[in-house]
């Protein structure tokens, strides 16, 4: 039995809360590893938290200015300094289908730090990532490790509703982030990948706290229920609109932007039902994509929605932003959408889709006139298209 098969079997047999210990024991036996630590990105994507602080590193590490953070940002293995014991630290991204979970750190004797061993450890990090996703259905161990402080109840509800924060496919790459990460209440994003299409939704429930979170939960699940029935996005909006109206009789509503991409052609169907905006970077030009504004979901009984048609080109970058982004006001009264948002999109054009939302939100925090951050959502979609569709 080879090492890859052994670690795969060991991880599958391990208790959901014991994955790190299983990897640690395996790497110590097979490669003489002197220490093994798993660091997970927190909800704000600003620090890497140790899963088992008692086993070594006890303090969070910055995503921006630490060797582990550089490996996380670049999504490439990184080697640290060799210590006095003639052992070197190695940092391996733990990523699942484009979702960046964290970093696996391994200290190895210098003599064992060969290219072959590095390939093996890269594979171990990939396996660990997949097992983490499965294990989180059965334990809170890793959810706790992602927190630098307690989530509000509304934020807990929102994070449990979300898909992954990033995803990659041959035709596109997605990244999204919410702020304030530990106190979000109404903003939400969702997507679903299929073999022939990509469906995307951005929603913003009216109100604050639990009220907004409950409203958004109703909207997102109504949209998912309609989408999974296989109907078009206009009818998805109409059914979700009816579900919200039946519950609140027009006293509450949800702003929504729905997109559906045809992967073969880049054709995009869009329904703009409220406040989220769509911006596009094409070449070096940033523009807001004007859509016909329709009624938010749940405002009136039996609203009807109309699909608009757009065309994505290979190389396009699309940003979906909530009103907490584009309406944010500077100390001088300037809205972020006037100049700041376009500048931020251009300044981040070399970053991956997964890294863009956090970078834009950091720029937004510097622009705002208050330290109190309203719900703010940024979703980035990089469109590559299909090779056969490019001619």
Automatic annotation (TrEMBL):
The keyword DNA damage appears for this protein: no
Protein name: PP2C family protein-serine/threonine phosphatase
InterPro entries (alphabetical): Bact_Sigma-Reg, PPM-type-like_dom_sf, PPM-type_phosphatase-like_dom
Gene3D superfamilies hit by this protein: PPM-type phosphatase domain (3.60.40.10)
Residue stretches making up the PPM-type phosphatase domain: 169-383
Top EC group: hydrolase
Coiled-coil boundaries: none
SUPFAM superfamilies the record matches: PP2C-like
Region (Disordered), start-end ranges: 67-89
């Amino acid at each position: 039995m080879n090492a890859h098969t052994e670690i795969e079997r060991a991880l599958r047999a391990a208790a959901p809360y014991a994955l790190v210990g299983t990897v640690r024991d395996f790497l110590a036996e097979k490669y003489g590893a002197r220490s093994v630590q798993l660091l997970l990105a927190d909800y704000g994507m600003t620090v890497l938290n140790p899963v088992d602080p008692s086993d070594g590193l006890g303090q969070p590490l910055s995503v921006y200015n630490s060797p582990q953070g550089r490996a996380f940002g670049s999504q490439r293995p990184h080697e640290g300094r060799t210590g006095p014991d003639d052992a070197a630290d190695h940092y391996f991204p733990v990523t699942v289908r484009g979702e960046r979970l964290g970093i696996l750190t391994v200290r190895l004797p210098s003599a064992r730090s060969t290219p072959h061993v590095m390939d093996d450890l890269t594979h171990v990090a990939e396996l660990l990532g997949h097992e983490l996703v499965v294990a989180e259905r059965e334990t809170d161990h890793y959810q706790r490790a992602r927190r630098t402080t307690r989530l509000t109840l509304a934020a807990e509800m929102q994070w449990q509703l979300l898909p992954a924060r990033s995803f990659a496919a041959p035709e596109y790459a997605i990244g999204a982030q919410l702020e304030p990460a530990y106190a979000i209440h109404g903003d939400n994003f969702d997507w679903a990948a299929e073999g022939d299409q990509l469906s995307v939704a951005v929603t913003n429930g009216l109100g604050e706290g639990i009220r907004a979170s409950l409203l958004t939960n109703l909207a997102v699940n109504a949209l998912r229920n309609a989408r999974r029935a296989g109907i078009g996005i206009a009818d998805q909006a109409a059914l979700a609109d009816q579900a919200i109206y039946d519950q609140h009789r027009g006293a509450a509503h949800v702003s929504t932007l729905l997109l559906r991409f045809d992967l073969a052609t880049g054709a995009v169907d869009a329904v703009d039902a409220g406040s989220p905006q769509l911006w596009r970077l094409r070449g070096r030009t940033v523009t807001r994509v004007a859509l016909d504004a329709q009624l938010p979901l749940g405002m009136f009984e039996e609203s009807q929605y109309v699909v608009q048609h757009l065309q994505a080109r290979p190389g396009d970058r699309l940003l979906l932003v909530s009103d907490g982004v584009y309406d944010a006001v500077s100390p001088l009264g300037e809205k972020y959408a006037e100049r700041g948002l376009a500048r931020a999109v251009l300044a981040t054009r070399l970053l991956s889709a997964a890294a863009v939302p956090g970078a834009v939100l950091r720029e937004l925090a510097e622009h705002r006139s208050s330290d109190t951050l309203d719900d703010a959502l940024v979703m980035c979609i990089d469109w590559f298209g299909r090779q056969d569709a490019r001619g």
